Amino acid sequence: MFVQSHTPFAELVEGNREQEALKEKCILVTGGDGDKCRLVAENYGFTNVVTPGDIINAYPTIWPFSQNFASYYSSHARPLPRPLFHPPNSKVSESLKIDAIFVFNDPRDWALDTQLILDLLLSHRGYLGTLSPLNNNSSLPNHGYQQDGQPPIYFSNPDLWWAAAYHLNRLGQGGFREAFEGVWRAVTGGEKNDVTLHKRLFGKPYGNTFRFAENKLELHRPVILGKGAATTKLRRVYMVGDNPESDIRGSNQYKSPRGSEWQSILVRSGVYGGGEPAWKPKAIVDDVWDAVQWGLQSSEWRPPEVVE
Fold first, then answer.
1. 280 in Cβ contact with 298 (< 8 Å)
2. Count of beta carbons in the 10 Å neighbourhood of residue 255
3. What b-and-e string marks burial along 71-83, b requiring 16 or more CB atoms within 10 Å of the CB?
4. Dmax over Cα atoms in the chain, in whole Å?
5. N or C: which end of the chain has fewer CB within 10 A?
6. What is residue 308's predicted lDDT score, i.e. its pLDDT?
7. Is the pLDDT of residue 304 over 70?
């Protein structure tokens, strides 16, 4: 079983209490190399997926500083399902409408993705190329911003830092979100105008991601342990991670609706650089192998006897 930070997005295909079903709606998916994230979204069940590459390939002037990436975008771009609104000859009702924005992975072109997301959050009902007349209306909640049927925006990973091949930690998707929120504040006036960015966050340390993982564990246990596992309670889960602010914090704060106990194990082989972590784990070990060994010893697990 393999669960990534964006895997819970799959639940939005059929919708939930907060979001209508998006299976056949037009969604914008950003991040990742080429159109890999589009393919993942389609595998989840979304049937109408647009990427920034599709848009810039069809309308190069929408962000005039991406010419150097033209061949890259054209290598994976698809035709848009509808044209962009462009006055005076376009009809809004016949133009491209984005119903939700998903940041699946770290954007490779922060500038283009920032511009497109900003355009959509300032648009009328998600029609790219329009501008909402409600923006900056002080008589409305949030000064009128995101009050005109704009698409919701989902981020899948709040990590500011991650450990890559370079010897210092690199900015992650959380860095892109912070940068975008800085642009949003500059455009809308931010806190001084009582404006916030309405967003929906997934990934660690948020409880929705841990609930999703726990549900998947419950479904997968009988596959590993046999049908009898379905009759026993999931007693304990070991959360192994390298980032105290996301992995350890999320595990420590999560309250299982099933009553399962979550124990966090911090490894030294990633973001964590030593010292007293901001969120204290049950154990600190060198790497994942040591974490597994610690979990096995802590649980007092024994392999089943083999009957000849």
1. no
2. 10
3. ebbeebbeebeee
4. 81
5. C
6. 59
7. no
Handedness of CA 274, 276, 277, 280 (dihedral sign): positive
Given pLDDT bands bounded at 50, 70 and 90, which one contains residue 305? Answer: low
**Cα gap 250→264, rounded to integer Å:** 9
- Residue 231 CB partners (closer than 8 Å, separation 6+): none
* Cβ atoms within 10 Å, residue 160: 17
Q: Name the residue among 131, 120, 37 with its Cα closest to residue 76.
A: 37
Asked if residues 263 and 251 have their Cβ atoms less than 8 Å apart, the reply is yes
Average pLDDT over residues 66-73: 90
> Which residues are registered as beta bridge partners of 28?
50, 101
pLDDT per residue as tens digits for the range 90-136: 899 999 999 999 999 999 999 999 999 999 999 999 999 999 999 99
How distant, in Å, are the alpha carbons of 202, 214, 224 from that of 1? 19, 12, 10
Q: Where are the alpha helices (DSSP H) in 81-136?
A: 110-121
Cβ neighbours around 20 below 10 Å, total: 12
Please report the pLDDT score of residue 220 as a whole number: 84
Chain-centre distance for alpha carbon 70: 26
Q: How far apart are CA 306 and CA 159, in angstroms?
A: 44
Strand, helix or coil at 181?
helix
CA atoms within a 13 Å half-sphere pointing along the CA-CB vector of 113 = 26
Q: What is the pTM of this model?
A: 0.85
The residues pairing with 264 across neighbouring beta strands, listed in sequence order, are 239
Q: Are 254 and 248 in contact (CB under 8 A)?
A: no
